[in-house]
Amino acid sequence: MSPYHLSSRDSQAAQMVLQSILLQTAPESLLEIPGIGGILAELLPYTKRHYDRLNKSRQDVSLLNFYWKQMRVAN
């Protein structure tokens, strides 16, 4: 497994490469790769972890924006 997919610092680039490969390669061609099911299954937990981390960050920013607007209205 590539270490680039494991760290949050490189996860966006790794996800973009993975998305490009999966979108531009015909499913039939992907199925010809030996062990592709296992490879994709190994990537899923990391992909989910990065998605969850980004989703949490997005929620935090929304909450921060809400508090900021409330403080500005109060002044």
Characterise this structure:
The protein is mostly helical and 75 residues long. The protein has three helices and no strands. It has helices at residues 11-24, 27-31, 36-74. It is elongated, with a radius of gyration of 18 Å.
Given helix and strand content, the structural type is: mainly alpha
Mean pLDDT: 86
Q: What's the Cα radius of gyration?
A: 18 Å
Give the low-confidence spans: none
What's the number of helices? Answer: 3
Relative strand content: under 5%
* Largest sheet composition: none
**Succession of helices and strands:** HHH
Shape: elongated
How far the N terminus sits from the C terminus, by CA atoms, comes to 53 Å
How much helicity do the residues have? over 70%
In total, how many beta strands? 0
